[in-house]
Design a protein that fits this description.
Blueprint lengths: L1 E4 H17 L3 H13 L3 H20 L9 E9 L2 E4 L3 H15 L24 E7 L4 E8 L1 H4 L3 E5 L4 H16 L7 E9 L1 H11 L11 H14 L15 E11 L4 E8 L6 E4 L1
Parallel strand pairs: 1-3, 2-4, 7-8
Antiparallel strand pairs: 2-5, 5-10, 6-9, 7-9
């Protein structure tokens, strides 16, 4: 068994949280710069120019790109030959989140109770942690800080199998276009299809952690990603909802087997600051 000390996990999670908030991934930066060259609207070009200027300043000064530094979503792939020592895996991750949000000027946005006692926890914990057991002796941690502006625009629909491809397309497109400027477009669109209602929403968010240009392995879903993106960008919503050609940067679909009588579809949006970082230990 390979031992990984909890302190190392905490250290890496702290670093990833800070970097995710302050340093836009290079693949997303490339998409935004390409979008600026394609945008035809004057307001849209202005918006993209300011978005690019903002992330350049954030990276230079290591300050947050957005005041909403999100609730931290963590995807873990835990090798079956890995033994986490000194603390539990979840405790080590939450300690890293706590240290990041206390030591750096990151807004703390988590409340203790969702309905009755909405008191701030003071350190942005607990994180939302998904752990998958995989073969091997590695521990992969992906950090995805999720802001409320884009998160609030997500949606789930339990379609009928007979609704088929057109039903999925209509739901996804209407969700994104209906969100307008609220999720701070241009957005990245995560789509989960299949499983159960909870699995579909998890898949939609998991899709947002993929690297730019990483498509569904099935060519039919790849084509569907392209078709949905094209239709969204015909909507005229544009950057920041001010009108224009570029409303979405990418559409990413994740799928899972489902029951014969159902077709769950979930949409989860990421704003233009598509923050994600990862490490393998």
């Amino acid at each position: 068994m390979k031992e990984i000390k909890a302190g190392k996990i905490t250290e890496e999670v702290k670093r990833l949280c800070i970097e995710a908030a302050c340093d836009l991934p290079e693949d997303v930066e490339t998409l935004l710069r390409q979008a600026e060259t394609k945008e035809e609207s004057e307001f849209g070009c202005y918006s993209l120019e300011k978005v690019i200027e903002n992330f350049e300043l954030a990276r230079r000064d290591m300050v947050p790109m957005c005041q909403d530094t999100g609730i931290v979503v963590v995807y873990v792939e835990l090798g079956t030959e890995v033994d986490v020592v000194d603390l539990s895996l979840n405790d080590a991750i939450n300690e890293g989140v706590r240290q990041a949000y206390v030591s750096h000027p990151l807004r703390k946005s988590v409340v203790t109770d969702p309905l009755f006692d909405r008191k701030n926890t003071g350190d942005n914990t607990p994180a939302i942690i998904y752990t998958e057991l995989v073969p091997g002796d590695q521990l992969k941690i992906q950090i995805l800080p999720k802001g409320a502006g884009s998160e609030n625009m997500g949606a789930l629909k339990m379609l009928k199998p007979a609704d088929g491809v057109e039903g999925v397309k209509d739901f996804v497109i209407n969700t994104v276009v209906g969100a307008g400027g609220n999720p701070c477009p241009p957005v990245i669109v995560g789509v989960g299809i299949g499983g159960t209602m909870d699995k579909a929403t998890m898949l939609a968010k998991k899709a947002l952690a993929r690297d730019v240009g990483e498509h569904h392995p099935d060519a039919r879903y790849q084509e569907l990603e392209k078709e949905i993106l094209t239709e969204i960008n015909k909507s005229g919503v544009g950057p920041q909802g001010l009108g224009g050609r570029i409303t979405a940067l990418e559409v990413r679909i994740e799928t899972f087997p489902t029951h014969i009588a159902t077709l769950p579809v979930a949409v989860n949006l990421n704003c233009h600051a598509a923050r994600h970082k990862e490490v393998i230990l």
